[in-house]
Amino acid sequence: MKKFLLITAAVILAIIALSSVGHMIGMAISLFIVYFSYKQFMATNSTVGKIIWALIGLIGFSGLLGSLPALAGVAAIYILYTGYKNWDRTKETPVVKSEDPFTGFDREWAKLKNQK
């Protein structure tokens, strides 16, 4: 039953991720425009150039705000990725051998007898 629910959740997340592909592409383009306009804004010395690059940056930023649903797609892809990485992991508790001399009294007694 647990595997069925995980597979159902994976299908739903895949649908969310696929429906957000267009928004993710728009977000990537808007991020590129904002980054490029910021770099050009910092490199330009003229006031008119700075105003033009600031306007281009604001246009890119408004496009970035318009593609906020892409964050749902990115989150869905991340959850799918972590689920895929942890699919076959089992919770194994490491067995720690106890070195307490009182837990194996017979063994310790035999060691003491053999040392003499």
From TrEMBL:
TM region positions: 54-81
Keywords: Cell projection, Cilium, Flagellum, Membrane, Transmembrane, Transmembrane helix
Protein name: Flagellar basal body rod protein
Lineage: Bacteria, Bacillati, Bacillota, Bacilli, Bacillales
